[in-house]
Design goal:
The complex is a heterodimer. Chain A is α/β, with parallel strands linked by helices. Chain A has one domain (about 5-294): TIM Barrel (Alpha-Beta Barrel). Chain A has helices at about 5-10, 20-25, 40, 45-55, 70-75, 80-95, 120-140, 150-165, 190-200, 215-225, 255-260, 260-270, 280-294, and strands at about 15, 60, 100-105, 140-150, 170-175, 175, 185, 205-210, 235, 245, 250, 270-275. Chain A has an eight-stranded parallel β-sheet with strand order 1-12-9-8-5-4-3-2. Chain B folds into two domains: about 1-95, Methyltransferase, Methionine Synthase (B12-binding Domains), Chain A, domain 1, CATH 1.10.1240.10; about 105-220, Cobalamin-binding domain (Rossmann fold), CATH 3.40.50. Chain B is globular, with a radius of gyration of 18 Å. Classes of the chains: A alpha/beta, B alpha/beta. The interface between A and B is medium-sized, with 30 and 33 residues.
């Protein structure tokens, strides 16, 4: 099988997966429970989610390891199980992906603001190394550092993956629209700042995930393309900004609404399109169909 | 004397903590909030005036943040500088010569472990002269109820980052209002909007920390 980069070089737009957290909750994950612990306790449920995205037409799936850094796992007293939980996460997704789909090992933020100096950079870097190595051992083809806001933390994670695994490294940031109409992370990073810093740190795929919905992603991809015409761009969009309906959290964008924006997103320069919070296999199927006819 | 007060306000606004702090780059090697506050107290400047200068500095950086001219890193450094000043002023709070504006009980709701937003709000509200009682993350409704009981007249702030914990926030508000209908509650966090906050029964919604300060200062005068 070709690598993900080789596949992308053929010029085809690829489909990624949708949400994991909200899918786990539908299967009974309690609020306040550690999602990564399900890789051991509810393996079949995690596998079923991975499988549902493959069945929906995704070319690649992520892993149930977003909060799998030692720093995050410490909240649940599971810090010592970091390597095992991440390896299990990748193994589950590998099983669903088989040999003809890609597995992207997910690494989310630690929640630490490095510039405050409360946690040494070295501690975070070592944590990312453990996580990346375990994901690679479990069968990940790519390490996907996602939902980042700060360049320092993201570059640490990218470097950890680059220096300790053979995997390709992807990294996506979460941008919000500012009152001035441009896009920034909460730490003030613009899409172009991100593109330049991440490629220097060694990321071979860059992009954006989460946020307000797929429409904003079009502008974000355009911003990235102003400074970087070559590096493949990955977009994982939320199904809009959540609203409360009768006490329940609902994501407003339907599969059709998201699919409508696909052609503009591709035109802007996106190479891989998938979903984030609130998206389901139905959303991914609709995205896959829209990509197919583009 | 006036000059010292102005410098303290500027250090807070720019996030210049002390002489050794390398931030901001253009103030490298200069005295910071720490040094100027010590000098001001030694020179007999009234603690009230120092506090006011800090509040003004925080207000200016807060407004810049609201206009997206600066972002969380700058706000954090200002809060850090503010904290340095507050450490010098603590004895005056204890002796009663400087008074806090009121008590603000703050926490991230049950099921949510995110503390960046909450910590920011905590620092900035404290920097504006409120006594903040920070209950941490994953705070169950019962813990809020207990603290409210211990602190009559307090105002409550609830934070949530996850879209999935908004339900717990609504539940916490319901429980607080059922026992203490006159306690005022303000909410904030990435997934929220003004409409959602109103639907949950919150009295206020803050889209950023400065918003929360403005709201608190407004209700403080009622």
């Amino acid at each position: 099988m070709n690598s993900l980069l080789q596949e992308l070089e053929k010029g085809k737009v690829l489909v990624s997966d949708g949400a994991w957290g909200t899918m786990l909750q539908e299967r009974g994950l309690q609020i306040g429970e550690c999602p990564e612990s399900w890789n051991n306790t509810h393996r079949e449920d995690v596998l079923a989610i991975a499988q549902s995205y493959i069945d929906a037409g995704a070319d690649m799936i992520l892993t149930n390891s977003f909060g799998g850094s030692p720093t995050k796992l410490r909240h649940f007293g599971l810090e010592d199980q970091c390597a095992q939980l991440n390896e299990a996460a990748a193994a589950i997704s590998r099983e669903a992906a088989g040999s003809d789909h890609f597995v992207l090992g997910s690494i989310g933020p630690t929640g630490v603001i490095i510039m405050m100096g409360e946690v040494p950079e070295k501690t975070l870097f070592e944590g990312f190394c453990i996580q990346a190595k375990a994901l690679a051992r479990g069968g990940a083809d790519v390490i996907c550092v996602e939902t980042m806001a700060a360049l320092d933390e993201a570059c640490l994670a990218v470097r950890a993956a680059r220096e300790n695994t053979e995997c390709e490294v992807a990294c996506t940031f979460t941008f919000e629209k500012t009152v001035n109409g441009d896009y920034r992370t909460m730490m003030g990073v613009t899409p172009s700042d991100m593109a330049i810093a991440l490629t220097l740190a060694g990321a071979s795929i860059i992009g954006a995930n989460c946020g307000n919905g797929i429409e904003g992603m079009i502008d974000i991809v355009r911003e990235i393309r102003k400074v970087d015409s070559k590096t493949p761009v990955l977009v994982h969009a939320n199904a809009g900004r959540p609203v409360l309906e009768g006490g329940k959290t609902v994501f407003p964008e339907t599969p059709e609404m998201m699919a409508e924006k696909v052609s503009l997103l591709i035109k802007a320069g996106a190479n891989i399109i998938g979903g984030c919070c609130g998206t389901t296999p139905q959303h991914i199927r609709a995205l896959a169909q829209a990509i197919e006819i583009c | 004397m006036n000059e010292l007060i102005q410098k303290i306000g500027l250090c807070v606004e720019r996030g210049k903590v002390n002489k050794v702090s390398p931030f901001p780059a253009d103030m490298k090697g200069l005295d910071g909030a720490d040094e100027y506050t010590r000098q001001a107290i030694e020179a007999g400047v009234k603690p009230d005036a120092i506090l006011q200068a800090c509040n003004d500095g925080m207000q200016r950086i807060g407004e810049k943040f609201g206009r997206n001219e600066v972002f969380i890193p700058e706000l954090l450094m200002s809060a850090k500088a503010m904290h340095t000043v507050m450490a010098h002023l603590k004895p005056f709070f204890k002796s009663g010569s400087v008074k806090s504006k009121g008590k603000f009980i703050l926490g991230t709701v049950a099921g949510d472990l995110h503390d960046i937003g909450k910590n920011l709000v905590s620092m900035i509200i404290e920097g504006n002269g409120w006594e903040v009682i920070d209950l941490g993350v994953d705070v169950k409704p019962a813990s809020f109820l207990q603290k409210i009981k211990e602190n009559p007249g307090c105002v409550v702030g609830l934070s949530a980052l996850l879209t999935t914990t908004m339900g717990n926030m609504a539940d916490t508000i319901k429980q607080i209002k059922a026992s203490y209908s006159d306690v005022r509650i303000i909410v904030g966090g990435a997934p929220l909007t003004e409409n959602i906050a109103a639907e949950m029964g919150a009295d206020g919604y803050a889209r950023d920390p400065q918003n929360a300060v403005d709201w608190l200062n407004a209700i403080g005068t009622i």
